[in-house]
Every structure is written in structure tokens, then in C-alpha cells.
Amino acid sequence: MTKPNAKGEEGAALRDGQNVAHVHRALRDAILTGAIPAGGTMTQAGLARELGVSRTPLREAMRLLQNEGLVAAEPNRRIRVAAFSASDAEELYALRIAIEAIAIQVTVPKLQPEDFAELEGLMAQMDHYIRVGDVDRMGVPHRAFHLRLVGSPGSRFETIASLLFDHSERYRRPWLHVSPDRLDTYPARRSEHRAILDAAAAGDLAAAAERLAVHYAQTATMVIGQLEPGRELTLLRSTIASVAPGALDEVFGR
Fold this sequence. Notes:
This protein is mainly alpha-helical. It contains 11 helices and 3 strands.
């Protein structure tokens, strides 16, 4: 039996690593965009055939997705995509508000005129893609807009904010009917983006945090209202009361 040489082993390891990254990215994107529906099941064998990879990189990619909470392993090598739940959605938005209400107040004082010009440009890009009905491309400047406003506290903040954004998008897309043929929620969301940016440009840190909290809470209440009508949003209310109390009455009333 011929012993593999070091270069062959290194090349195989590199290919496996590339395959893991490819499989993980492809499956993660499909789950987050709803191409693979929440609660759906798949088999490892079927996925390996569809993606044209061996079981080894597929298993590693699935481990990464499990760690992120997007899939769960089931008997007989079946994989189930995490289902939607009101409690998960509330937790996601409460975490976003808690982290980003702090992060935006650290980030805004560091923004320069060029940064505000970039943010205005991102809003214009969102408007353009909505006008032409390209929801997928609209998601790119939308993500950049939010992450640009909270990126200064440090890499941990940025990493967590990015992860929470992606997971909450998984809820936002289907439950707010963000599709090319129904974009009736966009004007309200655009108004909220405008209010956040105007408060930031004015240097009003408390107002920027409050506008951000209102924006996320409005989305959360609509999503959760679809999943579990009448749910008492105790976690969301407590989070806003702690980090952006000025937004509390606007979101929940007196």
C-alpha cells in the first residue's frame, strides 16, 4: 500500500476545508432566506448528492449550523431546520435592542461626514431596489446600514450584531411579506430608518438608541403577532425599559 505524501494530504485537507466552507455557506444562505423552509427535514445522503460533496464536509458544515442553532440532528441521519417560534423571535429582537442600543451610542460620535454620506447612500440603494422589486439585492444595503451604525465598540459586538441580524431576517422575510409582489411594509420601515439616521446625524445619542429600539420592536411585535397572537412581550418590554426607556410608551402605550 502506497503511503500518501505530505503534499497529497495537504491538498486533500485544503479541498475538504473549501468544501466545508462552501456547503456551510450554501446551506446557511438557503435557510436564512427561506429557500429551505423552517421546520423542514433533509437527509445527509440527499444533501450530499445535491451539493456534489462527500459526507465528511457535509457533517462538518452541519455541525457549524447546529452550533448556530439553525438545524438539529434527528435519527436516521436526518436533519431538521429550526422551526419558527414566538419565544425565539422575541429573544432575538430583545438581544438586538440590548446590544445595539449601546453600540449605536458608542459608534455615532465616531462617525465622520463621509460615514453619514455612506449611510445616506445605503438608504438610496434600498429605495432603488424596492422600486424595481429586487428584494434580494435590497437586503445587502439594508444589512450594511444597520451594521454600519453599530460597528465601533469592537469585533465581538460586530460579530454578535451580524449574527443576530441574519437570524432575525429569517423571521422578517416571511412574516412581514417582504416579497416583490407585496412590499406594503416598506414605507413604515423606511420612515424608521430615516428617524434613526436623523437622530444620529444630529448627535442625539439617546434619541438614536430610542429610534433603533422602536424600529426593532415594531418589527418584532408584527412578527410575533403572526406567530402567537396575544403573546405578552415581557422580555421585549423589560429590555426596552432598561436600555431605551424613552421608546417604551411608543411601542407599548401606557
